[in-house]
Amino acid sequence: MKGFLIITALGIIAMLLQVFKLKKLLLPITVLGILTAYVFNFLEWNQPFSISYFENMIAFDKVSLAFTGVILATAFFWFILASKSYEGEESMIDHFALVLFALTGAIMLTSFKNMTTLFIGVEIMSIPLYVLAASRKKDVLSNEAGFKYLIMGSFASAFLLFGIALIYGASGSFDINEIRAYITANQGELPSFFYAGVVMMLIAMCFKVSAAPFHFWAPDVYHGSPTLITALMSTIVKTAAFAAFMRLFLIGFAGVSEIWTGILVVVIAASLIVANLTAAVQTNVKRMLAFSSISHAAFMLMVILANVRSSLSVNAILYYSLAYSIGSITAFGVMHRVSRNGNETVDSFNGLSKRSPFLAVCMTIAMLSLAGIPITSGFFAKYFVFTAMIGTAHKWLLILAILTSAVGVYYYFKVIIAMYFKAPDTTVELNTDSSGNLVVLITTIITLVIGIVPGYIAEMFTS
Amino acid sequence: MINGISINYYILLSAILFIIGAVGVMARRNSIIIFMCIELMLNAVNLLLVSFSTLHNDAKGQVFVFFIMAVAAAEVAVGLAILSMIYRNVKSIDTDLLSNLKH
Fold first, then answer.
1. Is the pLDDT reported for residue A432 higher than 80?
2. Per-residue confidence at B68, pLDDT binned at 50, 70, 90?
3. Do B41 and A162 touch (CB under 8 A)?
4. Separation in Å, CA A91 to CA A40, A86, A88, A137, B87
5. Is A216 within 8 Å of chain B by CB?
6. Does residue A437 sit within a domain?
7. Alpha carbon of A402 to those of A109, A297, A406: distances in Å?
8. How many domains does chain A contain in total?
9. What residue ranges define each of the domains in chain B, with the CATH number in brackets?
């Protein structure tokens, strides 16, 4: 809770720095604030029980603290990565403040206990991102991305709200534990509009995590937004949305799982097929990463489908979001450096191994991790998903997942081949950015370390 | 039963309003109308919440409506700002012109 309050306060402090013209202090204050929040988060982890706040609206249990930890770690790297490129700009403080507010919403989503905080969390996270997606004012592509994100985001929110209203109508409560108790008490005689509410909330959450067939906005939005903002969307937003998805469906609606697992199977199968096949024909790396994020969403949904709120599935989804977030930060960090002149195609990576061997090695490791090749963290992430799935009735999904992962290897390797086996484009100069290099180096090391010794995170929750 | 009218009619009315809004978002090409349709969807939800709140004799649903109103206002503020920015760049708010992000 203290970490949550610190991040909220940081956003306000960042805006005050604008008033007092103390722009130089912005980065140190933000980084220190996130570290402090992390320390408080860690202290709360060691408490034996979870405390709920605001009339049981928010509760920080171990699961939410772990997800908050992943989000804060990603945000920490993001701020250092972004500091250099926003340095000269007038709007640096606005950007940072908006990102901090989005973080507030993300942390709220990991710890909600009530439909009110779920809705408010989704909106606090999304509204700053609409602005950030459209933040390059003169660029029509960025405008379009912001507009599409806004329309699709509020469209999904309306579905979420209609679902909440129907569930409230049936159960008379917004509290997820009370809804759970209501389902158990009225098993078999729930009104039909309660089921409609659950399905509408499922559709809304699939929109938010961008799973097919509700994914169509994601490639456009990822493509049009500034690269750093895309990095934010595919890491922090994804992690928070999955934490919320898991809380809502595995705590709140566990009693009616026969309703939503059927739909979820179709969503996962569609996401795996559509995302991997479409990603294979993309030439723009950002669009390719957008489709790859849809396929990663399908993997994380598979853990939810396994439908056991045991320590195994929490571990699997936590490890997956950490591995994916860290790998994406590396990939987008390198891409941000390579594509500064606006060329985001695979060709812009041509001969990177000669222009900057360091960045090429880091990008290779990130790509291997996203593809799920051993000794990187991505391999164990997929491995844990498969172990969580193996005991369920949907084993054919595992086969589909393995087949589509093989397609995934093809498009991730396209980038690696471009970096090592194609002639460099000498006209483009890479500018030096020591803090960016540091972030890319650290995230690459983390990818390797948690890939070689996955035990600490993979056994975080023991039953 | 609220004032002798079954709750199903309230659900039906809200659902019809919601569907009109949803179809509007997908079918219309003018950005302002799309915003209006999203507002219509949100207000259908408000209507539903208020009727359930009366049915259950419980104020929580009405409090939720205030949250929705506040958030909808924030969303429209951001949306109109983005729209005016788009208008400055392309001199139109027709969504057909916003299709540069395709391959």
1. no
2. very high
3. yes
4. 30, 8, 9, 11, 21
5. no
6. yes
7. 31, 15, 6
8. 1
9. 7-94 (1.10.287.3510)
Residue A30: domain span: 2-458
Residue A463 located in a structural domain? no
Mutate to test the interface with B, among A162, A179, A281 (most CBs of B within 10 A): A162
**What is the average pLDDT value for chain A, to the nearest integer?**
88
Task: For residues A423 and A387, give the distance between their C-alpha atoms in angstroms, rounded to a whole number.
Answer: 42
Report the gap between the CA of A127 and the closest CA in chain B (Å).
7
Q: Is 70 exceeded by the pLDDT of residue A428?
A: no
Residue A308, pLDDT score: 60
User: What is this model's ipTM?
Assistant: 0.95
| Sign of the four-CA dihedral A148, A149, A155, A159 | positive
pLDDT of residue A462: 67
Q: Can you spell out the DSSP letters for B9-48?
A: HHHHHHHHHHHHHHHHHHH--BHHHHHHHHHHHHHHHHHH
Structural domain contains residue A396: yes
This prediction's pTM: 0.93
Closest alpha carbon to A319 in A423, A447, A207: A447
Q: Do A141 and B101 touch (CB under 8 A)?
A: yes
Tokens of A204: 């809304």
> How far is Cα A443 from Cα A99, in angstroms, rounded to an integer?
20
Q: Which residues of B touch A166 (CB under 8 A)?
A: 11, 48
